[in-house]
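S.,

Sequence below, as promised.
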Amino acid sequence: MIHVPLGLALAGLLICIVLSAFFSATETALMSINRYRLRHLASRGHAAARLAERLLARPDRLIGVILLGNTLATVAAGSIVTLVTLELGDAHWLAAANGGLTIVLLLFCEVGPKTYGALHAERLALPAVFIYRPLLWITYPVVWLINTITNALLRLLGVSAARVASHSLSADELRTVVAEAGSLIPLKHQQMLVSILDLERIRVDDIMIPRSEVAGLDLQDDWERLLGTLRDAQHTRMPVYEGDLDHIVGVLHMKKVARELARGELTRERLVEIARQREAYYVPEGTTLQQQLVAFQQAHRRHAYVVDEYGDVQGLVTIEDILEEIVGEFTSLPHGLRHEVRAEDDGSYVVAGGTTVRALNRALGWSLPTGGPKTLAGLILEYLETIPQPGTSLKLAGHPLEVLQIADNTVKTVRIWPVAAPP
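The prediction came back faster than expected:
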């Protein structure tokens, strides 16, 4: 039997335990390190992050060298304990000695180091790569042989080590990341980031100005009425149509009209001529806001008319509407709601039936259902399944409502209370 001095044997055992703890801790740290922060550091020239990315590109090789080192350290520790036990006692103490070693390895080489590695992954992983890089070169033949055998077995199960799992985030996963950013990203910025992701879900008909609310010039009106509409116009662009919005002649830019009015040269014919200089831009309902934002950029347009499958105009969507979906309202109430929502002294709101549900929710912080009808009137009609009489009361999503006015077979005005302030 080989005789080993007790002090040297204990020193060797301590080194084996430290090496095993190092391999266990760094393995967990490297495998749990934030890959996106690692990529960010690497892009800024961080040497350790770049090296870590290269090592993690082939995790089978990295795991091979880690487990090889850990296994050798554990086996060496077991051999030293056996030799020391046989020198100090007899074979009957081997079971107790190895049992004690198992507890030590479990506590100080597995559970403790792995927990520390998971909690402080970046602090531990980045310095460790400078050790693993040369170690991988030294042990490459052995690691290559082990990986070749292991990968062959994995291929029998349909697993390829060459195809590393993608670390790209889906939109839903990115929403979770933004939500968990906490104080790292201001709440307002979090809301804007999530709103950008939601552009793929929201359609133009969800935010459009309804057809009944679109202001325009009807060429069938008399000239004095047309002039009055022009003088009272609150928009820089207005559609010019014959009879209804399904027959748009063109889009009128108020700057050009103002010059003609100032010179006193504006006539009906000149009005039509100016309108025809800019054709109406149509988009189908169901178009997502993300697609429409790109389309606005490509077409150099600021607004579009939403049409259904029959080509009938359903409403108007503007680039400002899309931007408000991202950054929120530019005023306490959006421009389109200033004349549609009126706050009352009792805490209720008198709302026009044609107001879109999304606009109400966004402006007042409510949670009225948006999966069905787009307007408040449509929501009430769907709920009641009949045209109500003035004075009809109901409750939607916890909001008490009272129908105030009915006209043209639809709900014109509604009184609605916030959930926290019932009448």
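The chain has four domains: 6-156, 169-198, 204-324, 335-416.

Coffee later?
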